[in-house]
Each structure stands twice: as structure tokens, then as C-alpha cells.
Amino acid sequence: MIAALAGPAGAQDPVLLEPEGAIPADRSGPTDIAYTVDLTQRSAHLMDVTVRLSGLNREDVRLVMPSWTRHYRIRHFAQYILQISAESDEGNVLEVSQSALGEWLIDTVDVEEAFITYTLYANDPSPHAAQLDETHAFLNPAAVLMYLPDHMHEPVTVGLQMPPGWNAAAPLEPTFDPAIFRAGSYLQLVQSPILAARYQELFFTVEGEDFGGMNVMVVLDGLPGFNVRGYQQGLERLVRKAIELFGVPPGDSYLFTVHFSEDRINEGVGYPAATTIHWGVHSRETGIESLLQTSLEAFLHAWLGGMIQPERDSEVDFTSPPVDDSLWFLDGVAAYYAELLMTRTGLKLSDAFFARIGSEITRLQNTPARLSQSVSRASEEVWYRDEDWYRSPTRSIDHHNKGFLLALQLDLEMRSATENHQSLDDLIAFLAAWYGRGMRTYEGSSAIVQTAGALVETDLDFFLEQYVYGTAELPFERVLALAGWGLEIVVEEVAATGFRTEAEGPDALAVTDVEEHSPAARAGLRRGDRILSVNGSTRVGNLQDIVAVARPEDIITLRIRRMLTEEEITFALGMGNRQIYALGELSRLTLLQQAIGSGLLIGLP
């Protein structure tokens, strides 16, 4: 039925995500681009990078350090560069000048080959950055390797100078030298994390009747502290189930790297050909189940955001982050299916899936910004989410959170419209085939929802306008009842400030309302006051985070500005109520409700 469906409205047909044989804007050299990364200065956390440019025929070369990563974060990696220099193949020093933040110009007049060398400090345990220490090196290429803006489509090589006994793993084409890799372009390279260390390797192959086989390599760096064989078996089941869902593997081979860190970290990042996980010491206390789910959620991004690409107004620019209104779908669906596939494979009980739904509803319903910020706008503004002033629940919602719930709603709406004959599973498989294998791009949220409507032959514009572009309350009772589920609400007592605020830039909160007779009002807080610090910290955007983990009667100190004067106000937090949502099963279910509920959990029809 999917194969007979015509292309959805908004599909750009056909556009290669990375055009083969693309002609760069400047057709003069270089004809060869090669990176060498020296990883021997482990104790100092310093990486020396050399960029060799051959076949030059131009007056100057512009090199740029990326400012953002795939995980929607502005990182300004240029801040870690300590020094930079350049010389010709004849040993002559070339002039290097900084043309802008993170950009350098190298004078290459009458130069055939140039070597640009820079040193960067690498000691960030995040999978979005780079780290070099005594035991390993991790390279997110965007955090380490500069690029030539007019030559991003040209092949490159990357060579590593490693300490004795280390090996390197990367989702790149190998060469005769195990320390040297090839990439078809910088655009491929920047999506190919590299791990170098003394690591443990695991292998398995996933095969199926409806898709070609995929060879999987798993690299474990550090001490896992759990049954490695059990992780491999669980991961193999999840990878197979994910490929069955999308109908096509992301490639002939795939790489998982898991770095077991001593830091407080629990993060995974998925790319078209690799998933990298950094798993901290405290995360390991949660056990293998949590690691498997994190690995799966990151792996799902091999298709979502990797193969299924939104249309861009212009070519990728690693200094200006792209804006996309459909991240709620890409990230929400990944989180939704990571939870659901754990259930479908038997690695978690259905009770855990129900508990996750209740937790996501609780979080959204206790976020006041749900009534003022749409999920499409939250997707577009995701680049601000690390800013304290933006993360306030009165200012913004989490697109992952609402995206998870919208994925559930869309799944149930599709099942209901077709008497459980089609579902979100079918939409995902179609998107992977039409946009992924077809190498097309889509026009944002509207194209996704219209495609879902075409599949089930139902007008889903109400879903798009009310819940994606709009801020209408999600119809939980109606939607959950389609699967025979209902909501139970429990009220718990929590700490409350007794006043409301709105952000005034990154350094101040404006008090917009103070509850009469509240402890804050009795302490003298007034509407119009500007909060400059909370408990001594000028990161005032953390106010809601502080209150969220506090208890009634805990003491809080605010430094405020009123008119031209500043003063401190100290008071005890008051008491408020918070609604907790939990799923339960309705009584006297119809056959259709039973079919939809069980079908969603086990993957039918």
C-alpha cells in the first residue's frame, strides 16, 4: 500500500543531500586536502593538527572552525585553538591573519603546497566535542578540523599519530595504513566521530528477508562494569527491530563506539554511519537497560535527521546554525520508538512504556510555556536551550518532550482512522523510502503531517494547526481512549516561589506578579523588581531549576534592583501543588480499542 502512494506535497524531487561531482564556487585549488592529528601530548590534552593543501593556485586560502554541532548547540570550537601558523612546501613562513571569529586567511601567492598547523586544547568529555587524555582520544571532527568553505564537497584524508598500542575506529573508508582514513567530503567527515584507544571490539551482522545485511562493529573503550555479552545481544535485537521498522538499514556497515567515562555524563549522538555514546560512572549505576535505550535512541537518528532531511534554503554553513521547524518530529519520534522498541523486543515491560507516557505528560502539563510557545517554534529556537534565561518553563517548552507526546498521538490517530491497519510505523517506513533512499528533502512539519494524512486518507490539518503550529492543549483523554487507556491524576505538594517572572535578557528576570500574602510578598518583593542573582548566583535563569529540587520552607535569597537601588530579599519558599499523571486501562473496552492498544505495543498490524 505504501509503494503505491504518490509523492507527498512539499517533496523536493530528487535532490542529493551531498551532490556527487559538485563544482565548488572557487574552482582553483587545492586539489588535495589532508589532515594529520597528533595525539601524543596526552597529559597536556593538546592536539596538534596539520592541514596539507596541495595543488594551490590562488592568492589566499580561508579556513574556518565550525561553531555548532549536530546536537543543536553553539559551541564556538575556535575558543580552544591556542596557536596557528603556516608554511609552504619549501619551508617559507606564510602570513596568517584572523579575518573573523573562527576564520583565518593564509597568504598563498605563488605557493603550490601549504601546511597549516594549529594546536587545540581537548579535554571535554562530551560526545559533541573532543577529548585527549592518557587512556583515549575522541574526536568530533567539527571540534577539531577546520574546513575550506568553497571545497566542502571534495575528498579528504585524515591521519592519526597515536601512542603505541592504540587503535582507531571511525565510520570512514580505511586505507593501507590503519591510522589513515578517507572521506568523500568534509560534509561526510564532520558526521564521522573518531575514537582512538586500546579498546575492545564486538561484531555482529543483522540480516533480514526484506533488507540487505548490515555488519555492525561495537567498540568499547574503558571498563563497562557489566555483562558485555548481554549488551551485545540486546543491541543486536534492538538494531534488527529498528531496521525492520524503517524497512532499510542505514548502510552496509555501522559503528557503535561506547566510551565509559569517569565524568558525570550520559549522552549519545547518532550519525548516518555511526553512533557514539559517552557513559559516565554514575550512569553505569542504572544498568545495561538504560545504556541500551540510550544507544537505540541515538541509533534511530541514523534515519531521522540523517537520511530523512529537511529542505535547506542554502548549503550547510557551520558558522550559522540551520533553522528547522520539524525537530519535534525527528527527536520526538526517536525518543518514542526508543521506549517502544524496548517493549517490543521484551527488554522492558509495557508498564515502563506507560510510566514514560505519564512522565512526559506530567512534564508538559507542568510547563506553563506550553500555552504560549508552539512545538514548531521550540524546534526553531532550539539553539537557545543552553541559555538559562530561555530554559525557564515559563519561557519555553522542550521540543523532545512535546514531540514524544505528538508521536504517540499521531500513532493513535493513524491507527484509529484505519481501524488499526496503518500506524506511525508505516509513516516512518515511507519517509525512509521516499526521502531517505530517494535522496529527497521535505518542507518541514507540514510535509510530514500531510504525508501521514495521505497514508491514512484522512485530513490531519487539525493536528498540524492546533498542536504543531498552535498551542492548544493536547487532547490526552480522547487520544489515549483510542487504545483503551485513561489518565489518573494525583496532586503532590511542591515548593513554590509565590511570584511569576519573565526573562529580560540573559542577566535579569523581571517580576511580573506576586501572590498576595505569600512569603515573597511578606519579604517585600514587588511587581517590577529585577532579579539579579539567586542564592548568590548571577545565573538567574536557574531559578526554576532551584525551586524544582527544593522543598517548602527552604530558604532562598534574591538580589533585586528596584528603580536605582539594589537590595537582598530572603524568605522561605511556600507550598504549591503539582499534578502527576499516570496511565491506567479503561474498563469495558471495544474490540478496536483492544486491537489498537495491543497492536501498538507489539508492532501490529
Set down the secondary structure blueprint.
Layout: E1 32-41, E2 46-54, E3 60-64, E4 68-69, E5 73-74, E6 81-88, E7 96-100, E8 103-107, E9 113-121, E10 130-132, E11 136-139, H1 141-144, E12 156-161, E13 167-169, E14 173-174, E15 180-183, H2 186-189, E16 194-197, E17 200-206, E18 214-221, H3 228-246, E19 253-260, E20 266-270, E21 274-279, H4 288-300, E22 309-310, H5 327-344, H6 350-365, H7 375-380, H8 388-391, H9 399-417, H10 424-437, E23 441-442, H11 444-456, H12 461-468, H13 476-481, E24 485-496, E25 499-503, E26 509-514, H14 519-523, E27 530-534, H15 543-548, E28 555-562, E29 565-572, E30 574-585, H16 591-602
Parallel strand pairs: 1-12, 18-19, 19-21, 22-23
Antiparallel strand pairs: 1-2, 2-9, 3-8, 4-5, 6-9, 7-8, 10-11, 11-16, 12-15, 13-16, 14-15, 17-18, 20-21, 24-30, 25-26, 26-27, 27-28, 28-29
Helix pairs in contact: 3-4, 4-5, 5-9, 6-9, 10-11, 11-12
Mean pLDDT: 90
> Can you list the strand order of the major beta sheet?
6-9-2-1-12-15-14
The fraction of residues assigned to DSSP E strands is: 25-35%
Query: Roughly how many Å apart are the termini?
Result: 13 Å
**Shape category:** globular
Number of domains: 4
Number of helices: 16
Mind telling me the C-alpha Rg? 26 Å
Helix fraction bin: 25-40%
- Strand-pairing-aware structural class: alpha+beta
For the biggest sheet, the summary is:
7 strands, mixed
Number of beta-strand segments: 30
Second CATH tier, the architecture of the largest domain: Sandwich
> What is the CATH third-level topology name of the largest domain?
Immunoglobulin-like
Low-pLDDT sequence parts: 1-6, 13-27
CATH hierarchy, class of the largest domain? Mainly Beta
